[in-house]
Amino acid sequence: MRVFILPRNPPFGQFLDIGGEDFHYLARVRRVKAGDSFPGSDGRGGRWLCTVESIGASSLRLRLEQSETAPEPLQPSIHLIQCLPKAAKMDAIVRQATEAGVRRIVPVYSRHSQVRHRLEREMENRIERWRRIVRQAVQQSGACPAPIIDPPRELENVLRALGRPGEGEIRLYFHQDREGNQSLHRCLSKTTKIVTLVVGPEGGLSREEIDLLRKQNFAPVTVGRTVLRAETAALYAVAAVQTVIFEREEWEPT
Fold first, then answer.
1. CA atoms within 13 A on the CB side of 148
2. DSSP string, 19-80
């Protein structure tokens, strides 16, 4: 556990009672004892020192002391628009994207999506599951702040709501075929604040969806000649973007 995600934004210098799954995790899995201390986070950048004050049969009490504020993550902020694959694959994408430092995850239904949450209750359950996965991934990796998870929407509606790109925003969609002559390095060569990525589902993006992406200023990029699984493509895309950006200052001038 790199950091414990607190269940709510705690007040400074007060106690917090922990029960349920969090109690089981700390008391039974981590086997903390009275007097043990560990770092905590409110999930939005606030840091806390958590000290176990007492442990009961079904709950424990933490004493909280505000610590340093987490530094702002390195720019740019990566937003992942992920066309929904099968449930287990999306769970893996959420976990991996969180560990990789993605700031926003937008699940969308696309033409070839094999999953649709037709009932509101079903959608709520799935979103709650993704948020639990995010919390677990943040605790294990130390990634902070935790990414925002949007409710699933139609890809077309999400794209039309984006409007024109803001200053410093780069929009990319990853495709198995090279559809343009721009390399990833060229796309990310300018100062960037936000990178919005679109990754397709198992069946890929339809021609109509690609046309709409082009109209909304998304540039096509590819990261290889092989066809990747949906969950692999998402992590591959995020990692490729981050690597290019982090190493940009070391590029040799042309």
1. 9
2. EHHHHIIIIIIS---TT-EEEEE-SSS-EEEEEEEEE-SSEEEEEEEE-PPPPPPPSPEEEE
Tell me which residue has tokens 């139609």.
154
pLDDT band for position 181 (cuts 50, 70, 90): low
Cα 254 to Cα 251: distance, rounded to the nearest angstrom: 9
In one letter, which amino acid is 230? A
pTM value is 0.78
DSSP helix/strand/coil, 106: strand
Section 219-228 average pLDDT: 79
Around Cβ 67, how many Cβ atoms within 10 Å?
14
d(CA 115, CA 100): 25
Kindly list the structural domains of the chain, giving each domain's residue range(s) and its CATH number in brackets, ordered by start: 4-66 (2.40.240.20), 77-250 (3.40.1280.10)
Helix (H) or strand (E) holding 158: helix 155-162
**DSSP 3-state of 81:** strand
